[in-house]
């Protein structure tokens, strides 16, 4: 039976009737009179030179309901920042670029570091955190969405469907997560979600016992998706990882701070493809190996916060349990692929599972060996307690950069 007819931990919105984009956008324009909407785009400068982001910007120029677009720009020097200002200038909406490597934001970051309130390492989490700070400081939106800048198959219907449940004033949702099928070029993608997260969540339940948190995470169709929307006020109290554990970290914080009846997920695309990370078998600091370690550490941390006794001895049991569950799931994926006429490379699938098995042990060692590690970036509520004027100063610094005084 379809889960549409079953009770779930969170509400699931299906794309049943393929409602016209024009109708969705008309409704969102009406909603914007009561709930102003913004968008956060965390980006590397290299993505401005790729094929995806230019198309994304072209699509966003047609979006009629956005009040503000906040762009986080990483790994950019002065000339590249100036290029980015020109690149995004065709957006008709009010938009601001956070030059995260520029002197103004670097100075604020150094000040925060002195009080241990700054992100510990560069990455998407740090980028999103500063964008969240500017969004709070701007005070122009009551609903904000976020999506990645490497979506090759992007169209603005994704954004409309993502924003709708939170923007509709007749709905009660504070947070919406996007999901979609990961199929492209005639094969399954999404290896980290399919081959690590899903079997690992099941294995964590077997080894450490079931919990509301694990059941909650398993209810998401695609917990690693980089697309979500929320009430802007939610940003105040989010404590997120600065590494690849961002998406799991956000869901964990929502579970802690928000009633599950106020959380939903929505089918936003029939076809989704983005930049793929290399497996990076020989380098644990890059690619899918780094991603899998960070994600697994994020899960260990959350379970420990919930009082689960995670010991070094249990990781071998977890690894063995995960390996068996992952292989069983590969059988299902292979059958699904054959049914749908998709290519399926069982060798590469099992090779990925072997890599992820090692990541489970590697993440366990890191978790046990660094008990004093600060896994989360402090919330903006805490930053404002230490620096009551920090949001205003962040806002002013971004405004100065975007005026041309660089």
TrEMBL record:
Annotated Gene3D superfamilies: Spore Coat Polysaccharide Biosynthesis Protein SpsA, Chain A
InterPro entries linked to this entry: Nucleotide-diphossugar_trans (IPR029044)
Gene Ontology terms for molecular function: transferase activity
Superkingdom of the source species: Bacteria
Alphabetical UniProt keywords: Transferase
Protein name: Glycosyl transferase
The species this protein was found in: Rouxiella aceris
């Amino acid at each position: 039976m379809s889960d549409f007819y079953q009770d779930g931990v969170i509400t699931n919105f299906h794309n049943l009737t393929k409602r016209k984009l024009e109708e969705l956008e008309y409704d969102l324009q009406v909603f914007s009179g009561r709930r102003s909407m913004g968008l956060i785009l965390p980006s590397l400068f290299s993505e401005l030179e790729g094929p995806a982001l230019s198309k994304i910007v072209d699509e966003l120029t047609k979006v009629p309901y956005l009040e503000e677009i906040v762009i986080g720009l990483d790994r950019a020097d002065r000339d590249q920042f100036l290029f980015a200002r020109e690149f995004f200038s065709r957006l008709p909406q009010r938009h601001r670029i956070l030059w995260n490597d520029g002197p103004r934001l670097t100075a604020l970051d150094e000040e925060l570091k002195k009080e241990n309130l700054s992100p510990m390492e560069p990455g998407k989490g740090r980028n999103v955190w500063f964008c969240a700070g500017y969004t709070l400081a701007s005070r122009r939106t009551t609903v904000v969405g976020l999506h990645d800048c490497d979506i090759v198959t992007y169209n603005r219907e994704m954004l409309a469907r993502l924003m709708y449940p939170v923007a509709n004033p007749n709905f009660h949702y504070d947070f919406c997560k996007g999901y979609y099928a990961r199929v492209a070029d005639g094969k399954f993608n999404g290896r980290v979600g399919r081959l690590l997260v899903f079997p690992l969540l099941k294995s964590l339940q077997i080894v450490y016992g079931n919990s509301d948190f694990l059941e909650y995470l398993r209810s998401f169709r695609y917990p690693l998706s980089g697309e979500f929307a929320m009430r802007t006020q939610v940003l105040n109290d989010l404590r997120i990882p600065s590494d690849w554990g961002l998406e799991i970290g956000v869901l964990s914080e929502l579970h802690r701070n928000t009633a599950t009846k106020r959380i939903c997920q929505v089918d936003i695309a029939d076809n989704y493809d983005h930049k793929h990370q290399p497996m990076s078998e020989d380098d644990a600091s890059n690619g899918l190996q780094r991603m899998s370690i960070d994600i697994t550490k994020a899960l260990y941390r959350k379970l420990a916060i919930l009082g689960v006794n995670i010991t070094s001895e249990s990781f071998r049991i977890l690894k063995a349990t995960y390996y068996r569950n992952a292989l069983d799931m590969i059988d299902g994926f292979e059958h699904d692929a054959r049914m749908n006429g998709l290519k399926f490379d069982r060798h590469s699938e099992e090779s990925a599972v072997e890599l992820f098995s090692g990541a489970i042990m590697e993440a366990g060692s890191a978790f046990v060996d660094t008990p004093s590690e600060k896994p989360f970036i402090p919330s903006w509520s805490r930053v404002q307690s230490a620096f009551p004027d920090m949001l205003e100063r962040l806002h002013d610094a971004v405004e100065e950069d975007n005026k041309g005084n660089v």
